[in-house]
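Risk register update: the risk of archive-format incompatibility is retired. Evidence:
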Amino acid sequence: MNKYELALVLNAKLEDEPRAAAVEKVKEYIARFGGTVTNIDEWGKRRLAYEVQKMREGFYYFIQFESDSTCPNELEHRVRIMEPVIRYLIVKQEA
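Archived output:
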C-alpha cells in the first residue's frame, strides 16, 4: 500500500451541507477503489493564489489515504468532473 495526499479546493460559495457531501463523496470514491482514508485536514476558506473560474476564494481540504497504485488514477477521473471542485492534486508521499 502506498501513501497519497489529495489536495482539494472546493467552491467558496457552497453552503456547509453540499461541501460536506462533496468531501464525503471523495471519501466514498477512495473506499470504492480499495483505499483507506487516514486523515482529513480542513483548512477552511482561503484566498486563492490567482483567480480560477472568476473565484478568488476556496475551501481547502487535504486528504491523506493509503491505497494501491490504481486508486489515484480512478479517483482523479471522478474528482475532475465533480461540480464543486475548483482544483485538485494527488501526490504520492514518500515512505
